[in-house]
Amino acid sequence: YEDICIVYIGQFDTRNVMLVWGYEWQGTYAGSMFMADPLNWEQYKDAHLLLLRWKDYNRDGLVQMAEITVEQSA
Fold first, then answer.
1. Sign of the Cα pseudo-torsion (43, 56, 26, 64, in order)
2. 15, 21, 26: which is closest to 55 by C-alpha?
3. pLDDT for the residue numbered 30
4. Banded pLDDT at 37 (limits 50, 70, 90)
5. Distance of CA 14 to CAs 9, 10, 41, 72, Å?
6. Rounded-to-integer distance, Cα 32 and Cα 19, Å
7. pLDDT of residue 5
């Protein structure tokens, strides 16, 4: 199994906005799991856009943090 996700962080008027789009539910779940880790916020603090990839290396069908990689950040 494999899926991708785009995470966008920006502002709309005076509000902070974060959008998490997965191609399938696993991508959305992986993006949400990735953004829930405060260490990732610190590592990508200057990025407003992330492309994430989830690959189910152990073929159990479950999204795990070790299976999520950042493909691109901007």
1. negative
2. 26
3. 99
4. very high
5. 13, 10, 20, 27
6. 10
7. 99
Confidence of residue 41 (pLDDT cuts 50, 70, 90): very high
Smallest CA-to-CA distance from 19 within 35, 38, 3, 39 is with 35
Question: Quick one: 3 exposed, middle or buried, by C-beta within 10 A (0-12, 13-18, 19+)?
Answer: buried
Q: In the 8-state DSSP scheme, what is residue 20?
A: E
Amino acid letter for position 48: H
Q: How far apart are CA 23 and CA 25, in angstroms?
A: 7
b/e 44-68 (16+ beta carbons within 10 angstroms → b):
beeeeebebbbeeeeeeeebeeebb
